[in-house]
Design brief:
single chain, 150 residues, alpha/beta, Nucleotidyltransferase, domain 5, 7 strands, 35% helix
């Protein structure tokens, strides 16, 4: 396995379902020096008790006396999917407006899958690496260490 080399002026997108960081490498491939360009925070994802208070629904079979409960909607998952789509749109604007040549994406597996589905082909063309880890809660220097080790 080869080590990840992040070219000078490449962008690194670090996200989870609620927060995203856009970083740019001001260093070189050997010694990356990531600087924060943008931060996105999803403020529209309140606690579960504030999103839905209904009890689970019931499904009744038309024949016989069978019934079962229906799984309750997970509002957090739906909001995280929406945030991933918005993040993908923001990445598309970034790639188009700043003429990005290389992009590294780091996100937990579920968020990474949502991003892959939502990414525009123009963005997919400049992705040089995908890392399936949640690095959003780490300071930038720790993110650099994880990317060097990837």
């Amino acid at each position: 396995m080869t080590k990840l080399n992040i070219p000078h002026d490449a962008f690194v997108f670090v996200a989870d379902g609620r927060k995203a960081l856009v970083l740019r490498n001001e260093g070189d491939e050997k010694f990356p020096n990531l600087r924060t360009e943008q931060v996105f925070v999803d403020a529209d994802n309140p606690a579960a008790r504030e999103q839905g208070t209904d009890s689970p629904g019931r499904a009744f079979a038309s024949v016989g006396a069978r019934r079962s409960s229906v799984e309750q909607t997970d509002w957090h998952v739906m909001e995280e999917q929406r945030f991933a789509k918005e993040s993908a749109a923001a990445l598309h604007r970034l790639v188009r407006d700043r003429k990005v040549k290389a992009l590294v994406i780091a996100a937990p597996p579920k968020t990474l899958a949502e991003l892959r589905r939502a990414l525009h082909n123009e963005v997919k063309a400049v992705v040089v690496a995908e890392i399936d880890k949640d690095l959003t809660k780490l300071p930038v220097y720790e993110i650099e260490k994880h990317l060097k080790a990837a």
